[in-house]
Amino acid sequence: MKVFFTKLFETLDRKIEEEQSKSANRDQRQNTHPLAIHRHMNSFTATENMNGFKRMQLCRQALDALDRRGWNRSFHQRLFHEEYLKSCTRVFFKRDGPGAFSR
Prior knowledge:
The chain is mainly alpha-helical. It has helices spanning about 5-30, 35-45, 50-70, 75-85, 90. The longest helix is centred in the N-terminal third of the chain and has 27 residues, at about 5-30.
């Protein structure tokens, strides 16, 4: 019995090409229609008057809003969140101009 793999390989190649084109289409759709959270966060970071300090303050306000909504954080959670914000300082200043972090 002879086994011909030509048809099998052709079918496999076609499936791979289909998956790659689906993936490329999906990537293209995601780039043109970002998720709502990306649009929301970009609206905050795209403004010219936004700087690292204001971004950090927005995070603190969001955590305070959680507390007001009944998600009371414990003492240690509050400490952790504050230290985490401090450790991410460079990220908050990432979109600012050169030298903004060092000031």
